[in-house]
Task: inverse folding
């Protein structure tokens, strides 16, 4: 019997994450009490939400930080787990966006089903992009004049962002209609 993965069930990190944090705090030796308190507060305030639009993370007691990333903004997803994390069965899923930062936009810590979560995020990320591309292709096919190629340039839609491609296609079609009108006026005059 196989169970399906439900990301909406992940609202908080697994309890094993606190064990991992205690081990990290012990490894800081002198700073143990301060590190343990900071990591405990982080553990107690970490919250996640996965919905139809994207991923949400909230953490912090004194300085609260909330991040919401839409699936369409996700560029890459990384799965990491160090030696201690593997021993505890934990992993961290890092979500990168095109924000230009070297650090991930969101990290989901304390996840037991990290590979299933990563696969779910990839599916959502690709599904949003594929749906967008399919709709734009249908609009282009309906709006283009007969006998004209869909893409007259050498570049492909994978090289140009979808919104830019749609805008450029609209501009191209408008210019062609304007050119046709000018020709009709010249021949009629």
Result:
């Amino acid at each position: 019997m196989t169970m399906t993965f439900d990301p909406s069930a992940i609202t908080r990190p697994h309890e094993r994450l606190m064990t991992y944090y205690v081990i990290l705090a012990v490894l800081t030796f002198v700073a143990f009490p301060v590190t343990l308190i900071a990591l405990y507060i982080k553990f107690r305030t970490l919250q996640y939400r996965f919905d139809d639009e994207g991923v949400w993370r909230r953490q912090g007691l004194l300085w609260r930080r909330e991040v919401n990333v839409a699936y369409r903004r996700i560029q890459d997803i990384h799965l990491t787990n160090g030696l201690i994390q593997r021993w505890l069965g934990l992993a961290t899923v890092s979500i990168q966006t095109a924000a230009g930062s070297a650090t991930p936009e969101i990290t989901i810590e304390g996840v037991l089903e990290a590979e299933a979560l990563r696969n779910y995020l990839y599916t959502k990320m690709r599904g949003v992009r594929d749906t967008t591309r399919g709709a734009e292709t249908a609009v282009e096919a309906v709006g283009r004049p007969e006998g004209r190629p869909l893409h007259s340039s050498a570049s492909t839609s994978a090289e140009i962002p979808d919104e830019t491609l749609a805008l450029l296609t609209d501009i191209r079609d408008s210019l062609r209609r304007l050119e046709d009108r000018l020709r009709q006026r010249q021949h009629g005059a």
Confidence is low (pLDDT under 50) at residues 144-158. DSSP finds five helices and six strands in the chain. Helices lie at 16-26, 32-45, 83-88, 114-143, 162-188. The two ends are 78 Å apart (CA to CA).
